[in-house]
């Protein structure tokens, strides 16, 4: 670790330590809506909480030392501190809760700030080299397995987020399936349009501005405005028997699907154009000299070479679609955005988290898988 990287890491570690000891970690509420009592980690968990807090403090001291190689130690100590904190929250008997029953434990600002500072700290530490990345993956996997095991045992059943999931489990499964349909379906529909448009712009350079400029304009239209623009034509189509049978109308899944498809066009069309343009012309000329037809050159030379960049456009569009599909909840389109807007209407942060957390997790996992696939394709080309 270079010396110049110490200051931001020390700031993140110090922020996490202050959040742990002095900001409210959780809030104990009698029900979903009523306000509750906020507790710091020492107040909520008693003296065992100082063990986890001491590890966060050790991370701060480690990063303030003079040794150059500190990243692995910081990663291990941070995940160890989180592992102990999870065990205390799940298995310990919180000293602050008077009585039992229907009380809910909801997460508060101290835990969010602790999570944010830990994530920034781990991001900088894991970026030091391959060894640090392996340490991060191993430690993260262990803590994740611990969290999943505690959840399956029911040790977090007192937490409001888990209670909301158990109450709305059926609706959650349906909303998750709808969210996948909106995201993957819209990107697939967009790809069937964007890829030919990008290739047309590559074959005829005079077409480029006529294709890319309108797609860029669509990208700048706010989502709610686009829903309003689509309301009239989709309402008209919904009156026709064929489209009525598909459930197409001015509200529901159709405007969300069309909007997400339109937003996905520019990244995929642009990357398709860049992918074909980046091909070394000498390779194409050599193939022509061998007597290959235009169709053979496209299938056997151009498309395989351009495919990693085309797939990068698909990756960008998928990440964008999973986030944008939240707005489908505004027009009755379903998806996980339903929980987000329901939570906003009821002032329930746990309902909001029930919609946001799966989106974040799925997006990160999907983005990582796509990234590894693109890297593998590029290695095969080399």
TrEMBL record:
The keyword Cell membrane does not apply. The keyword Transferase does not apply. Keywords: Membrane, Transmembrane, Transmembrane helix, Transport. One of its GO terms (cellular component) is plasma membrane. It is a multi-pass membrane protein. Residues 176-370 form the ABC transmembrane type-1 domain. It comes from the Bacteria. One of its GO terms (biological process) is transmembrane transport. It is found in: Cell membrane; Membrane. The chain crosses the membrane at residues 44-63, 75-92, 104-124, 136-156, 176-199, 211-236, 242-266, 321-345, 351-370. Its main location: membrane. InterPro entries: ABC_transp_perm/SBD (IPR051204), MetI-like (IPR000515), MetI-like_sf (IPR035906). It holds the Pfam family BPD_transp_1. Belongs to the binding-protein-dependent transport system permease family. PANTHER family: GLYCINE BETAINE UPTAKE SYSTEM PERMEASE PROTEIN YEHY, GLYCINE BETAINE/L-PROLINE TRANSPORT SYSTEM PERMEASE PROTEIN PROW. This is ABC transporter permease.
């Amino acid at each position: 670790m270079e010396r110049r990287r110490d200051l931001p890491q020390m700031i993140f570690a110090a922020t996490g330590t202050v959040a742990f000891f002095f900001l409210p970690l959780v809030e104990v509420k009698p029900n979903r809506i009523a306000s509750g009592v906020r507790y710091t980690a020492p107040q909520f968990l008693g003296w065992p909480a100082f063990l986890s807090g001491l590890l966060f403090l050790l991370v701060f001291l480690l990063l303030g030392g003079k040794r150059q190689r500190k990243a692995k130690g910081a990663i291990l100590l941070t995940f160890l501190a989180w592992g102990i904190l999870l065990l205390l929250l799940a298995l310990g008997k919180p000293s602050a809760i008077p009585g039992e029953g229907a009380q809910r434990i909801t997460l508060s600002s101290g835990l969010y700030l602790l999570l944010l500072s830990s994530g920034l700290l781990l991001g900088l530490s894991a970026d030091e080299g391959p060894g640090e990345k392996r340490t991060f993956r191993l430690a993260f996997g262990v803590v994740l397995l611990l969290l999943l095991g505690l959840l399956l045992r029911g040790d977090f059943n007192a937490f409001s987020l888990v209670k909301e999931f158990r109450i709305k489990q059926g609706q959650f499964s349906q909303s998750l399936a709808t969210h996948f349909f909106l995201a993957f379906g819209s990107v697939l529909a967009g790809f069937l349009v964007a890829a030919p448009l990008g290739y047309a712009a590559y074959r005829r350079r005079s077409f480029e501005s006529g294709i890319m400029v309108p797609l860029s304009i669509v990208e700048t239209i706010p989502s709610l405005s686009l829903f309003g623009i689509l309301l009239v034509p989709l309402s008209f189509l919904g009156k026709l028997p064929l489209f009525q049978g598909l459930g197409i109308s001015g509200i529901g899944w159709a405007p969300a699907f069309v909007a997400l498809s339109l937003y996905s066009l520019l990244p995929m069309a642009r990357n398709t154009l860049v992918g074909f343009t980046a091909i070394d012309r000498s390779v194409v000329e050599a193939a022509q000299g061998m007597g290959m037809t235009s169709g053979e050159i496209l299938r056997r030379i151009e498309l395989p070479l351009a495919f990693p960049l085309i797939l990068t456009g698909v990756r960008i569009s998928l990440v964008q679609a999973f986030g944008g599909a939240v707005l489908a909840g505004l027009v009755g389109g379903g998806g996980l955005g339903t929980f987000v807007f329901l939570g906003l209407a009821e002032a329930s942060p746990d309902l909001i988290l029930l919609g946001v957390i799966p989106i974040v997790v799925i997006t990160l996992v999907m983005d990582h898988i796509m990234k590894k696939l693109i890297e593998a394709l590029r290695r095969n080309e080399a």
